[in-house]
Amino acid sequence: MISPVPRSPVAPGFWRNIFMSAVAILLAIAITTPLTSRLDPVIGDFLLAHHQREVAEPAQDIVIVAITEETLAALPYRSPIDRQFLAKLVKTIDAGSPKIIGLDILLDSPTEPAKDQQLFEAIEAAAAPVVLANVTGRNGLTEKQVGYLSGVLEKRLSGSIVLQRDEIDGVLRHLPLLQDENGNNIPAFASVLANPENPPSYKPGRILYQPAMQNGSASFVTYPAHTLDLLPPEWLSGKTALIGTDLPIIDRHRPPVANSGSSSGGSLPGIEVHAHILNQLLAERSVYTISYWHVLALVLLTTSLSVAAFSLTSRPGLFFTGLAVTSIFYALCWYFSIGQEVAMLPLVAPPASALFAVLLLSLLRWWQDRSEKAFLEVAFSKYVSQSVVRRLTSGNLKLALGGEKRLVTYLFTDLEGFTKLSQSLPPEDMGSILNEYLDRMCDLATSHGATIDKIIGDAMVCFFGAPDENPNQASSALKLAIALDKLCEKFRSDAHVKGIALGTTRIGVHTGEAIVGNFGGKRFFDYTGIGDTVNIAARLEGVNRFLGTRICVSKSVVDRCQQPSFRPVGNLVLKGRNTPIECFEPCSDETMDSSWMKAYLHAYRLMEAKHPDTQAAYEKAYGLNPEDGPTRFHLSRLNDGIVDAQVTMWEK
């Protein structure tokens, strides 16, 4: 494992603190603002709806005349809406002596000239003022449509019907803009309806949606347009009558909180939204909302003050208590401002950004304190057991840097078929499996007191005997090998259940002398071992695939272990060596007492003596356990005429 050489921590100076505080503030704002910009409006939606249910008065004298699908079914064509029908509608409403009439239908193109003329004559002849629909700027209209609409609206009352949806989630929260895309002032449709002679203006704010009536009916009285002839005219007397469509997919908007006044799916027709806005203007109510830049300035101020207070205090507990109290006080002020209909400030963004910045600085302080503790803890905490780290940092264990000859026991592992498997699985799945596999192996290795040397792909290399002396290193390594084998077999079985053909994990263990220490350049070093011992352990891991075993240990390991349950697998002449090494496989006492193992051991002794009955003995062992790897390996050699326990390995 390559690790950076730890450096002596630098005492944080004044300017360094200023720089880190500024970075924390900017990071906190950059991370929390996008997240809270989605959360703050939603919280405001629910609290504002609750406030409305508590304080809203019954709706003003507003009625909606809705053009529905049933209305259109009786007309000669759907679009544009028949102007003759609209003319009759205006006359019928006007006959009921309404206060004012609003027509939320854009007259942006001519239809049948006679019917167009009837509508304009009905508007001019109406005793009540008639407010027509306008749009800000071009709003998707062609030059021809803009020119026709301008002619229709000339010398007639009109207001903009354009509604302001939230750019983040498309919810209709805010009052319409009073300027078009070119910056020209244009009154809103509801403003002209509220006061045709002097349309009221307003500051940017929230729409205060009128709650549903107490009997559960809609927020406003609504009459289908095709039934208007059947209603008593006095029902419209003194009312503000709004004419508009209530169709499934045309001119529909999603309010912040679905209420009983909205139609199926929680959306409202545009004409009803204008009714809510008009009702709010007539009641002279508003909840001001500050701009994005003002929100950013408020977040910057609160975050900077919190960081400054945290930097000046030496008692973090007291600071966080104060921060919590301040946040609660801010939340109460926020709720009070809603209740008094003063303004809607961001609730989550300021305290969230302040807390995040302080947590970043806390993390920095922790890192600085930790880096000042000890050179060795930084160097070894990731690849030796915690007990060794504690001894290293306590000073009770002396470590020579640069390398020293030590008796060590090396353990190599490798996952069979990993390269082939990685080509058949998506990278994210393969990465997840490999990370979990290595995490479990590394945890097991450190829990047994091993020092993890390196991770190479799917292979783990670890050793015992350095940096901490371990007189029982061979036994420790053997116990780890057996534990790893059980772990990996369980992991492989679980993977197979999921349909992942994970191979076996091969393990090689060898004890011998090696040079152990820090090797590398000035910037990076690797605490590792070099020498023949390391190479032999790596070769023993590789011979498992020929022998049919999962664990292969050398005689130097067996001689240092108290456990007698080993079976010989061959005197192996490893690649790159001239002298054979006696190699063994650890087995349980139950396995050693089995009939097939006794047959195997008898056959192996005959093979060592080069006895002519060797092949027959191995065939008997094969008959008792045809799945045994070493039995099949030696029987294959015997079939080739080789009667010898010494095996020359031509491959790694």
Helix and strand arrangement:
Layout: E1 2-4, H1 14-55, E2 62-67, H2 69-73, H3 83-95, E3 100-103, H4 113-125, E4 130-134, H5 143-153, E5 158-160, H6 189-194, E6 221-224, E7 240-245, E8 252-253, E9 268-269, H7 270-282, E10 288-289, H8 292-312, H9 316-339, E11 343-344, H10 349-371, H11 375-380, H12 386-394, E12 404-415, H13 418-422, H14 427-447, E13 451-456, E14 459-464, H15 473-497, E15 505-520, E16 524-530, H16 532-547, E17 551-554, H17 555-558, E18 566-573, E19 581-586, H18 589-592, H19 595-608, H20 614-624, H21 629-639, E20 646-648
Helix pairs in contact: 1-8, 1-10, 3-4, 8-10, 14-15, 19-20, 20-21
Describe the protein's architecture and organization.
The protein is an alpha/beta fold. It has three domains: 13-45 and 290-371, no CATH class; 65-282, no CATH class; 400-562, Alpha-Beta Plaits (2-Layer Sandwich). Helices cover 46% and strands 16% of the residues. A hairpin with a 2-residue loop joins β13 (451-456) and β14. The relative contact order is 0.09.
